[in-house]
Structures are given as structure tokens and as C-alpha cells.
Design the sequence.
């Protein structure tokens, strides 16, 4: 379906849930953010999400807000973020996606904003895009343009989504369906929400596209638990915190542990669960 | 205009987690609109509890000062809680109750909407949390205390610019987390559909009252209706009933801050560009990349880089005109109402006064102008005293007096004068930029 969905399926064929790692561009500076992303890919991430900082990130909790703020105060713009992605994609062997808010997509290369953003993303080698404040109902213009540029589109769903919304999101997605594990914003959580598994179960009823679970997935144990029922595991804030605390080396250590969790959890049920 | 769009503006740009709730809210609103007991309940509360209808007052001395058209003030400052905000919170509070929500959350800038929300939460026995920028908590301290007295928890927001924009972000984050038990009682005609529509429907009573009373007293419609615009709820409230009356000019006044030639203002419709902020497509003060600008206004309630999508549509169709009044002009309007009418207005509402005086001179003595006096100014007296470096009897200089301005030589009881800060602020920043301004 796309390089993004292929990456998830390839990991699954290899006996593990795909590990998707989020890090923001420009935090703590542009070169270090690229080094952290490269370290994550080297340490076992199957997909990278590169966050483009936005002034009003209403889906993000304190850790990612803070990283955003640092990057914006340094004066980086989406132009700089794209330039970093171009170098990143020349150095890694896994697909990367951009994750940012709709107003950023809408303005880049104005007056033809969405098209400018999508074609630039494709030109620098990004494989897909996640726009968390763009629900399916408002997405038709973006879908046409993003798919025309060859970008996979990822949509978020939540336990509050109706069956109809789940089906709509699954229908238009060309990457994976992003199932949010909990109600709330991005951030680390001590324990894993109980909402994710039933949500993934509902999604299995409406689609056979890959389903990845994120938001509040913080530790190798969480990753292992999610990998028992999902095709992929998305980790953001915990990795951002590692980047803040210990740079690329700390990111690599965390990602290795998360990747091992993805393999343990998926492997534990792979033989008994042919429905995947 | 359907599905929450006003021309190309509006819409619903929110995380999927909120979509279902916004659908439910819209359905509950439609059901309530069709339910006579809802209307009866709201009318009774508006009247007996809220003090509506508010009066329309002909401001004789302000009119004489202007020397032109008669200026009427719609006295929303006399409504319960001291502003027009109660209309909206009564409606949404009753709606939340019908939806089975037990908890209300709200953002607030000047604190007027926060106070109104705390009020309705107390009245309906609901839990209440209000997010308010740290900077606004400081400059509107009275309202913080009022909210706390009524049992609301006030959370200072330290993110970003520490003002209304960031309070909205933080309230959205709370809502995303607690959406099943909580209603976000949004305080203006902004945000994702159905909020701009719902808020407008609850505040449009302001214009309905103005129109009916003026027709009865004067036998005619006004030449112009004016109101300050931050998010735009009081302006939408007073404008909406007049949209079909083509002869009535609708004039919104935004916060010009230190002047439109600086980046220290909040004049979104006059100086902004199109974008998506807080769930809707509208005008936004932002850079070329879509990063939202920090804004400035002397009034916390207008200190916002976005504006309601229906105002964006009224601007582009030319049906309404939008201008800006600087901080200095707002202080001048504040002073005029204090000294000439014995009314201490909210600094927000005071923005419309100087433009109204100017328009009164243009229109001449046969004209009628209605200004929506959206709130009272008790909350602002500390800030005004600080900015003007007023000295009160028995006291030293007021705390925090601006150190960058030479202390004026002034007797202890000298009234505030707009000259205090005039040296660094352009006086002629009133600007007509919308297409409507030229089409009359």
C-alpha cells in the first residue's frame, strides 16, 4: 500500500511489532535531533516520526511542548526541518514520516500551501504524514494532494470514536491507523491504559490495514504488552525525554529496549494468533 | 452556511478524540433548540437571575462631547457577573447538564468568561476549573478571587505567551483527557464547529433587545452598531440580528495595542492572514510559516491572535467593517466614560468608545450609534492605575508603576489622563482595512 505500511508488515513478517519512534526536529538543536533520529533507526526503530514544531501544539503534553519551544526559540523554521529530513533520509534505511499540525502544512509554500508542503516532504524523502488536528471529515483536500505527492497518510482514532469514524479513518489511511491508547495528550504514563486493546479489536472488525498504538506508551514493558495485540508500537515523549537527558546514546539504549519489547510481545502470541 | 462553515471559514480541525463529542454537542443543541422547556428555562434564568433585558442608555454627555450623532450604550455591564458573558454560559451550562456532564472547564482572558462559568457552575452544582494565563491572573486579579469565591479552581497557565491563546490550548488538553465527564464551556464565537454557532445563538439576544428597544423608542434602526472584538462574542451578539438590515453599519473594533505599525497588537481581522487556529479556519496573527504570533493588548480579553470564523466571513463579504483602537485610545475611551458618564467600563469595551465618537462626528446630529458596552471595569482599575501611574490619597505610588515613563507631576486625586503614555504610542492608529469600509 505504501512504504509506511510495508515497513510495518515487514517487521511483522520478521516476528515483531513495528517500532515507531517520534522525535521533534531542532531539539535540542538541529544536528543533535538528526543524530538522535539516526540513533533510533540504528537501534531498531522500523519507522521514524519527525515532529515539526508548532506554536500551539494542543495534542501535546509538557515533554513535547517543551522540546517544541526550545526548537522554536532557536529560530528553526519548517524549511530548516525539511533540510534536516533530507540529510536524515540519506543516512537511514527506514521510512520516515512528518508529524505536524495542519496550520503548518497549510502555510508551507503559500499561496499553494498544502501542495507546497506535500511536494517538499516527498522531495526530501519523507514517506508519509501525520496531522493530528486534521480529522477525516476535513481531510479531502489534503488527501488528494498528499497522495498525489506519494505521501502515505496516517489518521488517528480514539476509544471515543464511533464505529463509523473508525471505518472512515481506516478507509482513507494509506500508512497505518494510529490508535491512541488513552484519552489525552502525548506524554509518558506509569501504566498502560486499558482502552487500547478493545479499540484495536474494534478496528480489526473494520479493516485489515496495519494498526499501531501510541500516546502514553513509555517503556519496554508497555511496548511488549501492546505488541501482543497491535501491529506496531509508537513511542514519543519517553524518547524525547531520553534525548533531552542523554542525547543519541540514551535514545539508542531506550530504543533497543523498546524494540526487544516489540519482539517479545509479538512473538508470544504470533503462533496462536493467525488473525493478524 | 452549513456544516459549521461560514463561506470558506470555520470547520472543525480537532483531534479525532473530540469529534464524537462535538457531534453529540451539536445534536444536544439541536434538540434543546426544538424543546420549549429549554427555552423557557433559559428565559426565566436570564430574566430573574441574569437581569435581562439589559437597558439601552442614551449617553447624553458623551454625545455632547462628540458633537454629532447620538450615542447609545447597550448596558451589558449591568448584567449579572458584569458582562455579556452570562448569556452564553447559561445556555451552555444547561446544555451540559442535559448531556449528563458533571464538570465544566473554561479558558478565560480578562476573567469575565471565567467568572461567568464559575457562576453557572455554582448555580447548577457542577465542578469547575478555569484556565487563565499567568500574566492575565496578575492583571485581572479581582476576577481570580471572584472565581475562587464561587468554588472554581483557577489554574494559571505558564505555557507560551501566558495569555488567552495558551489558556485555550490548555483547556483543550484537559478536554481531550476528560471528554467523557466534562463539557468545555468555550467563551467566544471561536473554536471548532459547533461552538461558533452555539455561542452566537446564545448571545444574539443582545442585538435582538437593542433592535426592539430602539424601534420602540426611536421608531428607527441605528446607523451603526459598534463593539470591541477579541474572539468576537459580544460583537457577534449585538451584530447578528442586524445582518439583514442593510442600512445598519456593523463596526467591530479590535485591539491596536501599541499600534499596527508594531507587532504589539491583537488586530486579527485588520492585520492578520488566513489560517487555522483552535479548530477553525479564520484570520490569525501568524508568520509566513503559520507559527502564531504573540499578541499584545492592554485588555486581557482582546489579547488573542485569532477571531471567530463568522467575523472573518462578515469581513470578507463586506457586511461588517473592522478597525483597531490603540491602548492609548482605549484608555481615552475609558476616561471619557468615567468622567462624562460615571460609568467605569471594561478596558475591552472601552476600545469602541473613541471610534464611536469619531463616527458620531462623521454622521452628524441626525445619526444614531449603538455601542455594546460589553462589561464593567472593576477588574481593570488596578491595571489602569498602574499604567497611568495614578496616586491615591494616603498611598505611595501604586505598585508596579511603569518605570520606563517619567512620573507625571500630579496631585493625589488627579483623574486618569490619557496623556500619560502618549509619547511612545501612535495616536492615529485607527485604521479601516476591511473591504467593507470602502463600499458604503
Sequence:
Amino acid at each position: 500500500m505504501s512504504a509506511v505500511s510495508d515497513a510495518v508488515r515487514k517487521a511483522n513478517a520478521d516476528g515483531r511489532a513495528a517500532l515507531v519512534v517520534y522525535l521533534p526536529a531542532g531539539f535540542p538543536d538541529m544536528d543533535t535531533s538528526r543524530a538522535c533520529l539516526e540513533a533510533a533507526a540504528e537501534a531498531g526503530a522500523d519507522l521514524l516520526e519527525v515532529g515539526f514544531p508548532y506554536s500551539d501544539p494542543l495534542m501535546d503534553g509538557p515533554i513535547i511542548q517543551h522540546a517544541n519551544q526550545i526548537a522554536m526559540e532557536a529560530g528553526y523554521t519548517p524549511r530548516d526541518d525539511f533540510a534536516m529530513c533530507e540529510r536524515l533520509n540519506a543516512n537511514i534505511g527506514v521510512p520516515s514520516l512528518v508529524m505536524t499540525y495542519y496550520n503548518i502544512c497549510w502555510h508551507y509554500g503559500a499561496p499553494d500551501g498544502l501542495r507546497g508542503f506535500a511536494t517538499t516532504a516527498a522531495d526530501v524523502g519523507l514517506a508519509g504524514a501525520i496531522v493530528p488536528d486534521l480529522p477525516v471529515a476535513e481531510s479531502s483536500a489534503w488527501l488528494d494532494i498528499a497522495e498525489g505527492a506519494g505521501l502515505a497518510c496516517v489518521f488517528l482514532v480514539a476509544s471515543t470514536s464511533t464505529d463509523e469514524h473508525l471505518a472512515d479513518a481506516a478507509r482513507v489511511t494509506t500508512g497505518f491507523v494510529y490508535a491512541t491508547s488513552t484519552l489525552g495528550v502525548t506524554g509518558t504514563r506509569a501504566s498502560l491504559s486499558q482502552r487500547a486493546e478493545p479499540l484495536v479489536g474494534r478496528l480489526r472488525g473494520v479493516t485489515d490495514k496495519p494498526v499501531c498504538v501510541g500516546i502514553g506508551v513509555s517503556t519496554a514493558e508497555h511496548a511488549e504488552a501492546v505488541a501482543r495485540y497491535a501491529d506496531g508500537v509508537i513511542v514519543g515523549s519517553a524518547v524525547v525525554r531520553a534525548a533531552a537527558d542523554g542525547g543519541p546514546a540514551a535514545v539508542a539504549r531506550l530504543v533497543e529496549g523498546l524494540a526487544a519489547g516489540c519482539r517479545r510481545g509479538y512473538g508470544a502470541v504470533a503462533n496462536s494468533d493467525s488473525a493478524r | 452556511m452549513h456544516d459549521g462553515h461560514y463561506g470558506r471559514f470555520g470547520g472543525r480541525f480537532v483531534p479525532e478524540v473530540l469529534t464524537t463529542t462535538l457531534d453529540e454537542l451539536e445534536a444536544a443543541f439541536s434538540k434543546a433548540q426544538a424543546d420549549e422547556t429549554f427555552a423557557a428555562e433559559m428565559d426565566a434564568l436570564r430574566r430573574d437571575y441574569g437581569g435581562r433585558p439589559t437597558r439601552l442608555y442614551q449617553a447624553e454627555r458623551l454625545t455632547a462631547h462628540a458633537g454629532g450623532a447620538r450615542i447609545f450604550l447597550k448596558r451589558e455591564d449591568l448584567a449579572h457577573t458584569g458582562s455579556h458573558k452570562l448569556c452564553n454560559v447559561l445556555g451552555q451550562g444547561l446544555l451540559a447538564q442535559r448531556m449528563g456532564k458533571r464538570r465544566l472547564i473554561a479558558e478565560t482572558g480578562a476573567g469575565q468568561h471565567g467568572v461567568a462559568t464559575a457562576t453557572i457552575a455554582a448555580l447548577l452544582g457542577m465542578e469547575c476549573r478555569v484556565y487563565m494565563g499567568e500574566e492575565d491572573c496578575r492583571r485581572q486579579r479581582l476576577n481570580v478571587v471572584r472565581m475562587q469565591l464561587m468554588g472554581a479552581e483557577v489554574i494559571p497557565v505558564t505555557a507560551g505567551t501566558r495569555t488567552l491563546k495558551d489558556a485555550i490550548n490548555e483547556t483543550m488538553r484537559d478536554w481531550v483527557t476528560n471528554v467523557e465527564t466534562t463539557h468545555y464551556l468555550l467563551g467566544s464565537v471561536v473554536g471548532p464547529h459547533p461552538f461558533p454557532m452555539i455561542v452566537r445563538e446564545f448571545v444574539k439576544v443582545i442585538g435582538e433587545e437593542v433592535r426592539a428597544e430602539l424601534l420602540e423608542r426611536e421608531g428607527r434602526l441605528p446607523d451603526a452598531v459598534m463593539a470591541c472584538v477579541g474572539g468576537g462574542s459580544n460583537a457577534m451578539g449585538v451584530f447578528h440580528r442586524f445582518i439583514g438590515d442593510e442600512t445598519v453599519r456593523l463596526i467591530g473594533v479590535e485591539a491596536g495595542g501599541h499600534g499596527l505599525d508594531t507587532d504589539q497588537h491583537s488586530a486579527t481581522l485588520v492585520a492578520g492572514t488566513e489560517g487555522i487556529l483552535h479548530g477553525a479556519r479564520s484570520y490569525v496573527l501568524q508568520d509566513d510559516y503559520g507559527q502564531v504570533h504573540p499578541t499584545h493588548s492592554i485588555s486581557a480579553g482582546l489579547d488573542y491572535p485569532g477571531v471567530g470564523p463568522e467575523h472573518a466571513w462578515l469581513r470578507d463579504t463586506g457586511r461588517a467593517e473592522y478597525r483597531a483602537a490603540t491602548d492609548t485610545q482605549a484608555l481615552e475611551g475609558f476616561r471619557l466614560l468615567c468622567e462624562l458618564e460615571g460609568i467605569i467600563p471594561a478596558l475591552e469595551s472601552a476600545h469602541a468608545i473613541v471610534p464611536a465618537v469619531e463616527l458620531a462626528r462623521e454622521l452628524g446630529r441626525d445619526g444614531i450609534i449603538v455601542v455594546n458596552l460589553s462589561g464593567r471595569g472593576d477588574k481593570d482599575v488596578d491595571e489602569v492605575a498602574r499604567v497611568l501611574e495614578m496616586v491615591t490619597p494616603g498611598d505611595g505610588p501604586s505598585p508596579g508603576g511603569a518605570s520606563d515613563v517619567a512620573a507625571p507631576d500630579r496631585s493625589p486625586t488627579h483623574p486618569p489622563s490619557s496623556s500619560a503614555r502618549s509619547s511612545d504610542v501612535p495616536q492615529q492608529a485607527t485604521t479601516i482595512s476591511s473591504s467593507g469600509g470602502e463600499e458604503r
